[in-house]
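re: that chain from earlier
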Amino acid sequence: MSSFGSPNFFAPVLLLSLSNIFMTFAWYGHLKYKTSPLWIVILASWGIAFFEYCLAVPANRLGHGTYTTAELKTIQDVITLTVFAGFSILFLKEPLTINHAVGFALIVAGAYFIFKGPL
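^ sequence. v structure.
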C-alpha cells in the first residue's frame, strides 16, 4: 500500500476530478442548448466523454492497489456529486436545496463507512 504522500495516493483523485468535469459536461452540458438536434448532442457528448475516459482509466489503473475498487468507486461518486453541485449552480443556474444537501451528506456518510473498514 502506498503512503499518503505518494503519487498513487493523490493522482487518482486529481485524475478522477478532471474526468468528472468532462463527463458532467458530456451528460448535462447540452441541457443549456435544447434547440440543438439530438444527434449533434450525442456526437458532441461522445467527443467530450472520450477525454473523460482518457483520464478515468489511468486514474483507476494508478489507484488500484493504493485503493480498493470499492474505495475508487466511492471517491469517484463523491467527486461526481461535488462537481455536479458546482455545475448545477454555476453553469445551469439551478439552485440546490436543503434536500440536496441532506441527500449528499448521507452519501458522504456512506463513503465514510467504505473507508472506515470492518465494523
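The chain is about 75% helix and 0% strand.
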